[in-house]
Amino acid sequence: MRSVFRVLAKGTFGLLLLLIAVVILLGLIGVKVDMSHLRPGVEIAASTALGREVRITGPVQVEFSNWPELEVSDIKIANTPGARQPEFFMAGLARLQIGVFPLLRGEINIAEITAEQITLNLESDAKGNPNWVFGRPNPSTPEEPAETEDKRPIAFTALDRLSLKQIAVNYHDAALNKSLSFVLDSMEGTAAEDEPLTMNLAGSLQD
Q: 94 near 77, Cβ under 8 Å?
């Protein structure tokens, strides 16, 4: 009887080692999985964080590795009520790659942020209120003191590559009744730890 349990134990341990090896291998080579069934949850989480409706009509894909990559297509972020355009932001493709192990240390290390086919509608109303301020603050509600007990702050460490392509920006100032638009063919940047973001731009301004 003991020999049977010994064989079962060895077999179970062997299968466990094989499973761990497979997980490590998949993490090293990277496996992309269609996660479009999670789209409603992603929309709700993004809408809650921004205080604006976020819609995703394209596929959602995740590549699993020690630097997982999230790729989302056809994204729209709603504008403020009464704005000239219904959408504040639109993108045909957005990709984010972030390190897992730095997150475990409380560090945000972003390998890449990529977005393509972007339309950004900026405007300020007659009172000078801009539409690029997010969130829904309630002045009548006093702010609760931040909890500091046993919580390590999450620190941004680096952004290795920011790449934005095919960007159309429209700006309207309602107080001056003036509009401005420009097109950026590309926007490339990087931000090392404790260093400001540096950008290289290429595009054209109207007139």
A: no
Q: In sequence order, which residues have a C-beta less than 8 Å from that of residue 13 and are 6 or more positions away?
A: none
Structure tokens at 192: 């090392």
Among candidate residues 111, 132, 114, 115, the one with its CA nearest the CA of residue 123: 132
| Calpha distance 199→19 (Å, rounded) | 44
Per the listing, tokens 């006093």 go with: 142
CA angle centred on 42, ends 41 and 47, rounded to 5°: 100
Cβ atoms of residues 189 and 113 within 8 Å: no
Query: What is the SS3 assignment for 136?
Result: coil
Residue 27 is predicted with a pLDDT of: 54
The whole model's pTM is what? 0.66
pLDDT category of residue 148 using cuts at 50, 70 and 90 = very low
CA gap 114, 162 in Å, rounded: 6
Tell me the sheet residues that pair with 65.
none
Write the CB contacts of 116 (distance below 8 Å, at least 6 apart in sequence): 91, 92, 93, 164, 165, 166
Amino acid type, 3:
S
In this structure, is the dihedral angle defined by the CA atoms of residues 100, 102, 107 and 110, taken in order, positive or negative?
Answer: negative
| pLDDT score of 57 | 93
> 2 with 9: CB under 8 angstroms?
no
Which residues neighbour 179 within 8 Å (Cβ) at sequence distance 6 or greater?
A: 170, 171, 172, 173
Of 177, 153, 168, 60, the closest CA to residue 121 belongs to: 168
